[in-house]
Amino acid sequence: MAIKNRMTRRKFARTTAMAAAATAFVPGLITSCSKAPALMKRRFGRIGFEVTTLGLGGQASLQWTPSNADPVKIILKAFDLGINYYDTSNIYGPSPSYYGEAFKIKKLIPGSADYDENLRKSIFITSKTHLRYAKGGEGVQDIPNWTDGQQGSHTIDDLHRSLSLLFGDGKGNYPEGAYLDMMMIHNLNFMNEVDALYEGYENTDPSAERIGALAALRDYRDGTNRTGLNPENKKLIRHVGFSGHHDPSVNMYMIQRDKDNLLDAMLVALNANDKLYFSMQNNVIPLAVEKDMGVIAMKVFADGAMFTKEATWTQTPDMVVQTVGSEMISSDKLVKYTLTTPGVHVAIIGTGHISTEESECQLTNNLTAAQVLPDGLTEAERAEIEELAAKIKGGKTNYFQAENRPLTAPETVTVVQKKEGNKRNVTVSWNTAYAGDSPISSYEVWRDGTRLQQIPFKPQRTVNPFTLLESLDDKDVHTYVLKVVDSKNRIAESLPVILDNLA
Questions:
Q1: Domain annotation for the chain: domains and CATH numbers
Q2: Residue 169 gets which letter from DSSP?
């Protein structure tokens, strides 16, 4: 039975009316009129694609299929409703195969007599790989390599597998002209995984023992063969991205290592309990925005833990939530919260159940809720949703997210001096602080108990630290401290750093 959050066609039409003046036929969401308002779309970062605010997640009933669910029908309904972002992965079991069945029905197989090229261009298909190496890497300690494909596979094997399952025979073959809009690195958790992914990216040597996934994906995006792993110079993907459920500092490191803007998008866990954990919205999302990346939100319902499910990974069909909302909180509030978080373009949500009865159809309800402008909730309304969500399971819903971390001091503060004539030039450098439950406002550089400068906060774009230069006329010992201030005027400061006297 459906719980709470009952949406009518009238409400849908009223909500979407603010999205666009243009109209388009949207089957299943019409009233007595023949047309309904077009779905809201947002510019997908520097990718430029106009993405619908709701995308179809590749898990829930697409991965763990209850007996009363038909995954192909779920996918087809998403198409009929006008959704244009589709997500799957090489570790989602049968999910890519279900997409493949739906794509045949929708005439999305390149080379077939009825191929609908215009429809293909109008949608965005993302698959993911959890394989960190494109060459070598077997037995590297603490580097997880997971796939539903063959043992010993590497990154490009997963790429070919995705294309075969989505557009081909599921046995390794796929037609000429098949491509993915994006291949993502799946589920980053630790810094050493990032290092593995970037191995061989700079000064790529095809004879190297190990080559990380990113160098090879760049080849298959650009049609180059720097790695020696793309001898036919194929272009099989349009964009490269990554996902992260756990630690925003790892996600930030992944982006900071990216000197060439290879990473066009990030899939990140984000829901109304985010601030009770090591916050994604106050840390990595501002960095992604700074680099104009596409931002896809996931875990909007904490994999159902916001409702009836235990706060743990779904592993069996009986764990898939098939209701709409709960007595504690309506699903529309959670969807709107995520989509009004600054920087988010699209939310992907797994669907457990569809129905012709709108009140019971998860997909229709989520799509209706997703028709919200980026500023469609006030800060007070967002705070109210946070308060409601915090009461669910005592706020212990985000089992996938790192524990709460308060505002931290700037890291690796250094002070270096150099004599220039009669002056001593001093360079103060530091790496980013991490925000707690409120965004960072500014950095402050202090010398000998006096504030030298207040610097408005900007995300650290690269691994190169922030710097402040000053000239001193004396030869005395000085003490420097770096402070960070958040939007609630809370302060965290570094340990003092001593600048020795100038001999």
A1: 9-395 (3.20.20.100), 411-499 (2.60.40.10)
A2: -
